[in-house]
Design brief:
The chain has nine helices and two strands. It is about 50% helix and about 5% strand. The protein is mainly α. Strands 1-2 form a two-stranded antiparallel ribbon.
């Protein structure tokens, strides 16, 4: 990660390596995502196969990614990734050997800390937030595109307490705004909200 992060100008914010998948939260200012992921996955697969004397594919599918468009989704994704190992029963606290929790306490590490501390203000605020019990739901990256769409539709219906995810345009403006704010608060991207609720992207973006 360090070697190829430098090469492709990747800025890491969080990571967690588990027994059958990995989560990465990062910025890609040079738009090198596909090439970066192809290289890092290929290099790691070769290392893993050599170390454990195995052959063949290491990964079941191509990587899945989702754009984070607001700070609400960002902090939910951050906490979801850092709590993933604990919720999976791999450790008793979020201070897991193979995640980035320890990096936030270091001035120099693999992690870019500026955005995180601009949001939380201090290490103690960040630790409190990361340790807080929650019902965060982030999209399972193992889902295929059609399953992701169904997941998001079900999530929106649940949040809106409605049988349909569509937000009718004839509703009072204040009600439409409240519904969009709720969806954004729970980490849904602008693009996803607009596509599924049929509310214009410009409206969703400016709520």
């Amino acid at each position: 990660m360090r070697k190829y992060g430098r090469k492709y100008k990747i800025l890491y914010h969080a990571y967690c390596l588990l027994d059958n998948h990995v989560h990465l939260l990062f910025e890609d200012p040079k738009e090198n995502l596909s090439e970066f992921m192809q290289v890092i996955a290929s290099v790691y697969a070769r290392y893993f196969n050599k170390k454990y004397d195995r052959i063949g594919h290491l990964y079941q599918d191509r990587f899945a990614s989702e754009i984070i468009e607001n700070n609400g989704y960002y902090v939910i994704a951050l906490r979801y990734i850092l709590q993933n190992a604990k919720k999976a029963g791999l450790c008793k606290s979020i201070n897991y050997k193979w995640n980035s929790y320890h990096c936030y306490k270091l001035k120099k590490s693999l992690i870019t800390r500026d955005k995180i501390f601009n949001i939380f203000g201090s290490l103690s605020n960040l630790i409190y937030f990361l340790s807080e019990s929650n019902d965060d739901e982030c999209l399972d990256m193992s889902l295929r595109p059609s399953e992701k769409e169904n997941y998001n539709i079900e999530k929106i219906c649940k949040l809106l307490q409605s049988k349909t995810p569509i937000i009718k345009p004839d509703l009072p403006k204040s009600e439409i705004v409240a519904k969009i704010k709720l969806l954004k608060l729970h980490g849904l991207s602008i693009r996803t909200i607009s596509r599924i609720t049929t509310v214009g992207k410009w409206i969703v973006q400016n709520v």
